[in-house]
Amino acid sequence: MNLSLLWPRGGVPRAHGERVLVDVGDGDRVLLHFAPPRVAGGTVAVIVHGFTSSADARLVRSLARKCAARGFGVARVNTRGSGASLPFTRRLAHAGLEADLCAVLAALQRRAPGSSFALLGISMGGNVALRAAAALAAGKGPRLSCVAGLSPVVDVARCARDCDTAPHARLYRAVFLRSLRARVAALDRAHGLGIDRRALAAVRTLRAFDELYTAPLWGHASADEYWARASALPVLDAIEVPILAIAARDDLLVPYDSLRPLRRRAGVRFLATAKGGHCAFVARARGADEDRYWAENRIVEFLGAP
Q: Do the beta carbons of residue 17 and residue 45 sit within 8 Å?
């Protein structure tokens, strides 16, 4: 695991802004933290965290602080079963749940009328953000200005299979599964869902988890069907706003060649580095940027690009 993900980010406050509960249409609600743009009608950056993370992750808070400093509004979203959303949801989010993000955008539009929205997705959150951008194409809903992905997943099946089988991903897999099992168990305790706790405890791969939990809960026949339907790959060409993607060739979770369709798509600004791991882009020394977290700074600049 790339330990630079754990390096402290100085000056990252825990200020939450307004806590907003959004009904996502099936009795579940997700909680987000919202601060309006400095100028009425300004852009709102909507940040979607990664797999097993939350809106309070240091990377999310750092991005939010930088966006707010530039005058953008900020919404940090806790997906279903994550962070502060856990008490309000009966199901855990999945990689293709763009409908929840569209519901969040509709709620934010009512709080920030006249604003446009920039979707910022981290890792698996990048997959959700890209799918939401495709769903909202051609003016169907809140107005998007752009979408950005940091180490974005676009091929869910490829990433899941690699995480399950690649020796170098063993630690990531263990961390993910520990978090997933704990979240499902917490949902079961809170809502009495009748989860088979013994079967859950025996899960040792993402495939096994998705076969046991995700696929049946969300109406898919198998993990393979869920992965295929959740992937952003089939909908990339429907996106009508500018796209920024930042990736590393040494990413242990998102194989670089899985991003080839995104790299080749027109309208994508693709920044690639030899080093950087998964979401851990740290410059060797401070240069023209305010800090060493240069990828965050490129995303904020992208929001302000004409």
A: no
DSSP code for 143: P
Domain ranges of the chain: 3-155+232-303
Torsion-angle region of 22 (φ positive above 0: left; ψ -120 to 50: alpha; else: beta): beta
How many Å apart are CA 65 and CA 74, to the nearest integer? Answer: 9
Task: Compute the distance between CA of residue 227 and CA of residue 69 in angstroms, rounded to an integer.
Answer: 37
What confidence category does residue 68 fall into, taking pLDDT thresholds of 50, 70 and 90? very high
pLDDT tens digits, one per residue of 138-162:
677 899 999 999 999 999 999 999 9
Q: Band the pLDDT of 4: cuts 50, 70, 90.
A: very low
DSSP character at residue 168: G
What is the third-level CATH fold of 3-155+232-303? Answer: Rossmann fold (3.40.50)
Helix axes 58-69 and 294-303, enclosed angle (nearest 10): 40
Tell me the residue ranges of DSSP E strands in 80-171.
Answer: 117-122, 144-150
- Give me the pLDDT at residue 63, please: 97
Please state the length of the chain.
Answer: 306
In tens, the pLDDT along 252-283 reads 999 999 999 999 999 899 999 999 999 989 98
pLDDT at position 232 over 50: yes
For residue 82, the SS3 value is: coil
By C-alpha distance, which of 156, 101, 99, 147 is closest to 305?
147
CA distance 46 to 81: 18
Q: Which amino acid type is present at position 25?
A: G
